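Ticket opened by: R.M.
Priority: normal
Category: complex prediction / small molecule

The reporter submitted a protein together with coenzyme A and asked that the result be attached to this ticket for the collaborator who will pick it up next week. Submitted input follows.
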Amino acid sequence: MNASHKQHAKNTSRDRPSRPGAQDPRDGAADCSIPHAIESVDVRIERMAMHHIDAVMAIDAQGFVDPWPAETWRHEVRDDDRLHLVAVAADEPARLESRGAHSPTTRERVVGHAGLLFLAGMAHVSNVAVDSDYQQRGIATRLLIALIDRARERGCAAATLEARAANKRAQRLYSRLGFQPLGINRGYYTKPPEDALVMSIRHLDEPEVAERINRVRAALP
Ligand SMILES: CC(C)(COP(=O)(O)OP(=O)(O)OC[C@H]1O[C@@H](n2cnc3c(N)ncnc32)[C@H](O)[C@@H]1OP(=O)(O)O)[C@@H](O)C(=O)NCCC(=O)NCCS
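Result attached by the on-call engineer:
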């Protein structure tokens, strides 16, 4: 990675502990399966638009120490070299009076987001986060599968990302999808200081990549 790419990636790659103080007994494992569903949630994956920015910033404010400012998000939405997706879920049903009867209606809310930067024929995962109330339900998996699908359609040769060395939950998520460790980027993160594990899917066009993604997709609730 050259200096300008590194600087760019520093400004676009995100990470934070998934739940502050949470201990995960499976840290270190890189399982490819998805356990029995605890609770599934229907989400619709769509391209992020300007009207999603507040909701996405609210998700990031839950834990990122250096969340992107609104202007960065506007750039993320506008830039043709970036693709950012949101997961939209039906919120708690609300009932409204209509013609003397109670009609069920739903409000929708953004519960997760993930993005790609397309750079020199490669796809770089810039950001992924899920609302803490909606984690562990396959939402990040769905978002990343959608991004990998788009990267493959766009003819990208490979996909890369960085994850905090201690963020084992995120690393398991990426491993399940076929990302493999490529190396350590020392001192990559500054707030707080931490090394990054660089991961990649090196040949996105190989049939094994699609087969793996399809297996993970099929196991989702
Ligand atoms: C990392 C993060 C994005 C994962 O989001 P998520 O939506 O919880 O991820 P998924 O649900 O797709 O997968 C995570 C786990 O849920 C499990 N899971 C998926 N669907 C499930 C279901 N229906 N029932 C039970 N478990 C399920 C997966 O097996 C996986 O288990 P593991 O964490 O023990 O390995 C989320 O924790 C987060 O926002 N963290 C803070 C930001 C962050 O760290 N971003 C990554 C930067 S590198």
